Amino acid sequence: MTDLIAGAARQMHYLADRQRVVAQNIANSETPGFKAQDVAAPDFTDLVSAAGGARIASPRVAPTAAMIALGARPGAGAGIVADPDTFETKADGNNVTLEDQLLKMGQIQADFAAVTNIYRKQQALLQTALGKRGG
To answer: What is the dihedral of CA 108, 114, 117, 123, to 10 degrees?
Structure first.
């Protein structure tokens, strides 16, 4: 049971971080040279292995000096990556599209509501199991 709660908490932290990064993208939509960012989805392999499943390592790519010299950017923070959903770059080098970022905000809100609902239902089940909730 605590695995479900831990997974929900982890997803909520991810969604909060993603909302912050998307908000920064929106705030910098007119900043010359700004590149849109996103947050890498959390790795749930440790939850699978804790439940008795096999441990599967995620591939990790660390940019080399040569890659950085060619323009690759090292990670800007924990889980922050270049936004893979950018399709156009303005003449000033900015690749933030407000419509795409607002769609992401809506998806983040819907995902957060779904995870919150799962968390509430889990808490209600625990209270019922403990006899602290009437039928």
So the answer is: -90
Encoded tokens for 12: 């909520």
User: Residue 100 and residue 78: Cα distance in Å, rounded?
Assistant: 23
Q: Is the pTM of this model over 0.90?
A: no
The whole-angstrom separation of Cα 76 and Cα 52 is 34
| DSSP per-residue codes, 47-111 | HHHHTTPPP-PPP-----HHHHHTT----SSTTEEE-TT-----TTS----HHHHHHHHHHHHHH
Per residue in 60-102, pLDDT tens?
Answer: 667 777 777 776 665 545 578 888 888 888 999 999 999 999 9
Instruction: Report how far residue 95's alpha carbon sits from residue 83's, in angstroms, rounded to the nearest whole number.
Output: 9
